[in-house]
Amino acid sequence: MGLRFPRRSTGAGIQPFGTLSKMFRSAVFGIALPASVIVGPGVLAQAPAPSKAPSIEIDLKLFDRNEKDADRSKGCTVSVWQANRDPDKDQYALLFVEQLRGRDHARDPARIKIGAANVPLARIATGGKTNGYGLYEFQLYKTADGNGYVVLDLKLGDLMGEAVEIESGKMMVTMLGKEAFRASVKGGAGCMGNPLPRTPAAAALAAPVAPALSAAKSAAGSVAPASAASGPAPTLRLPPAPKMFERYKVDAAYFSPGFRQEVQKKFKCDAAVMRTGVTGYSLSEDSAIWEIPCERFAYQATSVFALVYVPAPEKEHTFITIPAPPGRKRTIDNSVLMSPVWDIKSRVVTSVSLGRGQGDCGVLEKFRVTEEGGLALMEYREKPTCDGVQMTPEQFPLVFPKR
Asked: What's the whole-number mean pLDDT along residues 252-263?
């Protein structure tokens, strides 16, 4: 299906960058003569027919729904469609598709359709934040012949389960000798099945990613030269080595989508709560305890804890098991602490789990952080009966250690 672009459209579909109607008006009103011109008194002669100018429009087309469904059934994809269309209902809606391969989501060449041809695109630069699947707010692609560029300027939603929503954005297409066009878009990235295996061909076609994409944000649609966007693929920069057992905010890029999905699956954590941010406590230059928020209730919240190797946290981590007093079973899961409070200087973690908001029953636990990065139980107090007699958790009956 072809795309028809109104010259003065105010809708959500594709619109030209330049306003050709202004050119047409100036051309028409700047000439006083009609199509036939006067060549002598009372004599009219037809003006010669102008030669047909080559089309300056990009013949951008939409993918058929069957093509979209075929791509999605293979595994992980990035799909972008016109904002005023629904790809699940409209036969034609999709503008841009990109297939992902392997656990690292290596990219096959992306595709747009121009005329009857599927045009492959290599990603050459990215910028802004990413919430998963290597999908960034700003992405620059180049055609194989170097005469065309596609810019994605996107507003990304958070990672929800196994998908990242493209809430809104613009897709800009420029080609040598053609008028540039821009589409209002929506879309998403995710996996409908197992990730595709990474093939040697896909690895060879993977484009280098530059650390920034300033050209993508240009409202005029100008594109930086490919030479300015080239460079080695970026790697995560390790944070400055914190002081021993210093608290720090873990950069969201280090808490990768795979790590988040593992925590969510293992501990049934709420995805929205996890996105509030991970806190790290350094044990050495390359190891730390991560406190990962899990669930939030009316007056308390839970966290899970992982001992991580800081340079590669997703690949090298273990979850910390919370010990119970001898002969007793904890009232909550042995992987979580309720509303933990850290004393950095003494390396003591205190957890209070209230039976109800009145605070007249519940459990207090205190742990010491060991040299190995585990938690050793120091104190356990419990008041199991909610009897209306209010007291502080420090006044609950002592269970461990017995004195």
From this structure: 92
